[in-house]
Amino acid sequence: MQMTRFKPLFNLVAINKELIRTVAVSSTAVKPDANLKSWREIPGPSSLPVIGQMLHFMPGGSLEGIEGVDGTMKLFDLYGPIVRFDSMLGKEPMVLLKDPESCEYILRSENWMPIRPGFMSLKYYRTEYKRSKGHTVHATGLVTDQGDVWKEFRSTVNPVMLQPKTIKLYATVLDEVAQDMIKRMKANRDEKNMITKDFDKEMNLWALESIGTVALGCRLNCFDPKLPADSPEWQLIQCVHDLFVIANELDFKPSFWRWFATPTFKKAMKLYEHHEDLTKHFIKKGKEQLKNKSDQEKGVLGKLLEINEEVAHIMASDMLFAGVDTAANTVTATLYLLAKNPDKQAKLREEIMSKSEKRPYLRACVKESLRVMPVVSGNIRKTTKEFDILGYKIPKDMQVVFAHRDMSLLEENFPRAREYIPERWITTKDDPLYYGNANPFAHQPFGFGVRSCIGRRIAELEMDTFIARLIENFQVEWFGPPPTIHQASLNYIKGPYNFIFKDVK
After folding, report:
1. pLDDT surpasses 70 at 21
2. pLDDT (0 to 100) of residue 22
3. Degrees (nearest 5) of the Cα angle 376, 318, 372?
4. Which residues contact 306 (CB under 8 A, 6 or more apart)?
5. DSSP letter string, 375-415
6. Residue 419 has what DSSP assignment?
7. How far apart are CA 368 and CA 446, in angstroms?
8. What angle do the packed helices 12-28 and 100-109 form, to 10 degrees?
9. Other beta carbons less than 10 A from residue 416's beta carbon
10. Which of 4, 44, 287, 342 is 20–30 Å from 135 (CA)?
11. What is the pLDDT of residues 141-171, one digit of tens each?
12. What is the bridge-based pairing of β-strands 37-38 and 392-394?
């Protein structure tokens, strides 16, 4: 989910704002001082050989229980806007950053092929593990490739994934999916207008049908009421969820798998293999239906097959991996926030019922939910050069984590930061709430630059379409305490899901 560009400088006010921001970056992030401190002097938990700072996170440690969604905010409260983490059990050292000007400086200064680490277990599966099984591997995909291999892959898929005119071709079929899901939700409500059984899986089912339709160019028929519990569709939903959870243990926490095959590592390899087998099943299904499709009706798979078969298969697989839990949790967050803010919901419904082609408030509602309850907490880079940040020298090849969720919830960046105010995205520039008053690098739900999320436009269309149909048909309410958020590779919204879906009269 990631792509930001310089905004056009239409007037003197905007020019001044950009100049001020540039000066701020130069003054706060870049310290051309011979007395710069080493990155090892950055504040952070004390460290021991081999195990690093793990002792602090163990039972009885000073940071026990800090791994929740607000954990990084607590770290910043303790140590300041930049926090050091040493190498732990083979996991590389990293720097956690909460200063938007410093984030901007690094992201804008990186070379033209920045390195975005993450999901090393997936990369291992698609390279070492598959080679051990006799497979030849060229590319592993946008999530895990770097350098020239990544550049060639991205250049191949960009025209299919990012052109607005191409994305618009999916609008009709995504609306059909949304309307079919509304029918399913109405049928699944109980006498209290609640969906009490597996609401999260229902949202995942919608997300899979939506992204599958775009990726493969055919309906997966996920909404079949007779769909068996062990069907490939349900298996894929569970497999994707399990992979994100297990990847959090292997890729984002210290782990012995870098030295030997732990039980968790072996389980991950089996899950990746299972996911690949499932996607092959759906790709075969998509290929069979391609024979009767026109060029306009073809999904991403069909379009890419005409260019590069290997790229087509990897891209379709990655869409079925990255596009399910992310979209489902973002929609759930948006529904919760609209339910808790009935005035915003009424305003959105009025816009939708007007049948206007342009729906800026709808887009603003989703943007605001991504700010208040983002599905991803931040972004990461491995520096390709040396940086001088906040008085410290950050060396080349250092992993830097940009804590966008935390920055998005700070009053200094967004006034009334904890409140759900979609208007901040569409109000005038003289309004104190106007989003443009914040440094744009305080909020980056889709990442930045060439490594931004390639599925952004598709995800936005998919979510906007479904939310519009939901609010058109239901008055959404919520009772009881707020949902809990479980932080793994993604921020998962956990039940009980106390939604009430009343018919709009």
Report:
1. no
2. 41
3. 15
4. none
5. SS--EEEE-SS-EEETTEEEPTT-EEEE-HHHHHT-TTTST
6. S
7. 13
8. 90
9. 11
10. 287
11. 999 999 999 999 999 999 999 888 888 889 9
12. parallel
Pairwise pLDDT comparison (17 vs 473), residue with the higher score:
473
- Retrieve residue 307's tokens: 């260019």
> 137 or 349, which is more confident?
349
Cα–Cα nearest to 378, from 406, 402, 410? 402
How many Cβ atoms sit within 10 Å of the Cβ of residue 154?
Answer: 18
Q: Which tokens in the block code for residue 92?
A: 């590389």
Angle at 214 between CA 211 and CA 219, to 5 degrees: 85
pLDDT for 432 equals: 96
Q: Is 63 exposed, middle or buried (0-12, 13-18, 19+ CB in 10 A)?
A: middle
Instruction: Report the helix count and the strand count for the chain, using DSSP H and E.
Output: 19, 11
Q: Report yes or no on whether pTM surpasses 0.85.
A: yes
204, two tokens: 């995942």
In the block, tokens 């806007």 appear at: 81
| HEC profile of 313-375 | HHHHHHHHHHCCHHHHHHHHHHHHHHHHCHHHHHHHHHHHHCCCCCCHHHHHHHHHHHHHCCC
Separation of alpha carbons 213 and 227, rounded Å: 17
Annotated binding site: 453
pLDDT of residue 127: 93
More confidently predicted of 69 and 482: 482
pLDDT band at 33 (very low <50, low <70, confident <90, very high): low
- Known binding-site residue numbers for heme: 453
Q: Name the pairing type of β-strands 491-494 and 37-38.
A: unpaired
pLDDT digits (tens, 9 = 90+) for 450-461: 999 999 999 999
Task: Provide the pLDDT for residue 30.
Answer: 45
Q: What share of the chain is helix, strand, coil (3-state, %, to 5)?
A: 55, 10, 40
Are 243 and 264 a contacting pair, CB within 8 Å?
Answer: no
Contact assessment for residue 247 and residue 121, using Cβ atoms and an 8 Å cutoff: yes
Half-sphere exposure of 161 (CA within 13 A, CB side): 26
More confident residue, 502 or 48: 502
Residue 486 DSSP SS3: strand
**394 closest CA partner among 21, 119, 14, 110:** 110
Closest by CA to 372, choosing from 345, 400, 407, 398, is 407
Query: Side chain identity at 369, as an amino acid letter?
Result: S
What element of type H or E holds 55? Answer: helix 54-57
Alpha carbon separation from 453 to 80, 360, 443, 492, 494 (Å, rounded)? 29, 22, 14, 19, 25
Give CA–CA dist 142/146, Å, rounded: 8
